[in-house]
Specification:
The protein is an alpha+beta fold. The protein contains four helices and five strands.
């Protein structure tokens, strides 16, 4: 498999929505305007491509000096367990540098993935859930 990674390339909201749908990640894949706003509001996006097909996506919000929140990490189900998520995460880390703390909230099914990669877990996070 020849996966190509890209940083901050223009993205079609429909392609991202389709990837969300086939990855299993809980995102508003039926609201293209919201997906578009999510992409445009990101400070950093990293994508994985098999030819012209988007198969992986990471989206982050960061100040580039202290903290980075990894909001999305999605890989199409047919491509999972091929180190694509690992590649996306590594590129995010490379882009933000060693002086920036990476923070994320894991989906329940992804906790072991992040543990295997050596990320530390915490019980100090708090959340105010979206109303819609």
């Amino acid at each position: 498999m020849n996966i190509r990674y890209e940083v901050n390339v223009p993205l079609d909201p429909q392609a991202v929505a389709s990837l969300f749908r086939v990855s299993g990640i809980d995102r508003p894949h039926d609201d293209l305007r919201r997906i578009e706003r999510m992409i445009l509001g990101a400070d950093l996006t990293v994508t994985a491509w098999n030819g012209s097909q988007l198969v992986g996506f990471a989206r982050a919000l960061t100040d580039w000096c202290y903290c980075c929140y990894l909001s999305d990490l999605a890989v199409a189900r047919d491509y999972q367990r091929n180190a694509i998520g690992t590649g996306l995460l590594k590129l995010v880390e490379d882009e933000i540098g060693d002086s920036v703390t990476l923070v994320l909230i894991s989906a329940p099914d992804a906790k072991e993935f992040y543990r295997r990669l050596g990320l530390a877990s915490t019980d100090l996070a708090f959340i105010v859930r979206r109303k819609r």
